[in-house]
Amino acid sequence: MSTDYRDWLILILPSAFILLLLLYVIRLDPYVEKRKRKPMQYCVLTVSLTLLFEILHALFELYDLHYMRTLVDIGSYVLRPLAIVLLMHILQPEKKFLHAWILLAINTAVHLTATFSKLVFWIDETGAFARGPLGYTSHVVGVILLAELCIRSVRTSLREKKRDSLLSVIIVLLILVGLILDTCVFTDGYLVSMTTYVMVIACVFYYLWLHLRFVADHENALRAEERIQLMISQIQPHFLYNTLTTIQALCRDDPEKAYAVTTDFSAYLRHNIDSLSQSGLIPFEKELEHTRIYAEIEAIRFPNVHVEYDIRDVSFAVPALTLQPLVENAVRHGVRIRKEGLIRIRTAEENGFHTITISDNGKGFDTGKLELSDFEHSGIKTVRDRIESLCGGELEIVSRPDEGVTVTIRIPTDA
Fold first, then answer.
1. I need a surface site. Which of 83, 137, 177, 341 has the fewest CB within 10 A?
2. Gap between the Cα atoms of 352 and 185, Å rounded
3. In the prediction, which pLDDT does 358 show?
4. Would you list the domain boundaries of the chain?
5. Cα–Cα distance list, 131 to 91, 101, 114, 119, 121 (Å)
6. Where are the alpha helices (DSSP H) in 254-361?
7. Which region, left, alpha or beta, applies to residue 358 given φ > 0 means left and ψ of -120 to 50 means alpha?
8. Which of 18, 20, 79 has the alpha carbon at shortest distance from 205?
């Protein structure tokens, strides 16, 4: 072992400070999921104790306290696999990992025999460390647990399709490298093992990983809330009331037409409700069909409103409730006041973009209100935000007072 402790303290003090600070931060951090906070705290505490035991090992060796050195070595060999199990609980807090705890119990029992036998290791009269026939028990248990942690990390990454899960795999490989270096390279004895240093790094990166997960979950929650708000905004009470009133009137004058409108209205509501479960994109043809149904229902109430379609490109996907809200906005706030209200929907693939154009001959509006979260046109702003975040596209609005509005959506063909 190196006797120049000043060089080692340069490494030990920062590691100890990082662990203590991390333990304090985790305790105060409101953004770490509660069921993951405790195993994270226990993991940091376990690594901190391992670091302390290895420092005590050096002190007891210096003063030839062989029995005390044996005790802290037992503690180090028991705590290292424990830290790995706690990492597993951070990754999947819903699991019990009973088999892992059984392995830990076996590892602990085996190493406790060092207090009265040479089965695992012993310190001879000269202070030299010697391994018994079960001297690598902690290493074997650690490798088994690391393999399981790696497999679970890969499965989580594949199941959730989140690249941040690979961070856990990288950490597992780093810990494995630390174990190999301690077993095969740094065999002469050092103040602190390479495995312990790697575990300090693992604690920091697992904490960062928890925050990455929080950010991702928070974004998903916002998107889910956004979808709910968008759906609610599209099923306005006045639209429900007017459509049901129309169906009621048709039941007397034209029962077959009433039946057809009821079928269309049911399909309209079903699409809006289904959009709640759509976190990604849907085929444009599905959104176009939903828009056609909406337009046919409105055409009964407003015979002066006509919708023309010029569909040249459908081989792309869009967020649910993208086209229909724009057409509804054109009807409600534009063309229905015209004697001959006209809405044109055109799609084409142009200059590397899937282009959707919705134009009307309505009264137009002040596009500046979109930036002020104007309630009447908040649906357009929501659609624009979703096009940008989910498709990497753009939404452009050109409004001409008393002439109409043209909304153009451009989605990259490679999106």
1. 177
2. 56
3. 94
4. 5-219, 235-412
5. 34, 24, 10, 8, 4
6. 255-274, 284-301, 323-333
7. beta
8. 18
- Mean per-residue pLDDT of the chain: 82
CATH of domain 5-219: 1.20.1070
Give the C-alpha distances (Å, rounded to integers) separating 96 from 93, 102, 141, 171: 8, 11, 18, 22
pLDDT digit string, tens, across residues 313-369 = 999 999 888 898 899 888 887 888 888 899 999 999 998 999 999 999 988 776 665
> How many angstroms separate the Cα of 320 from the Cα of each of 29, 120, 378, 410?
36, 63, 16, 16
Q: pLDDT (tens digit, 9 = 90+) per residue, 243-259?
A: 888 888 888 888 888 88
d(C-alpha 277, C-alpha 280), whole Å: 9
Question: How do residues 11-54 score in pLDDT, each as one tens digit?
Answer: 678 888 888 888 888 888 877 777 888 899 999 999 999 989 98
* pTM for this model (two decimals): 0.56
Give the phi and the psi of residue 409 in degrees, each rounded to 5.
Answer: -110, 130
Closest by alpha carbon to 258, among 247, 268, 269, 266? 247
Residue type, position 395, single letter:
L
Q: Kindly state the DSSP code that residue 92 receives in the 8-state scheme.
A: -
Q: What single-letter amino acid sits at 392?
A: G
Rounded to whole angstroms, the Cα distance separating 363 from 405 reads 8
Residue for token digits 């499965």?
155
The CATH number of domain 235-412, selected from 3.30.565.10, 3.40.50.300, 3.90.226.10, 3.40.50.150: 3.30.565.10
**φ and ψ at 308, to 5 degrees?**
-110, 140
**Number of Cβ atoms within 10 Å of the Cβ of 415:** 14
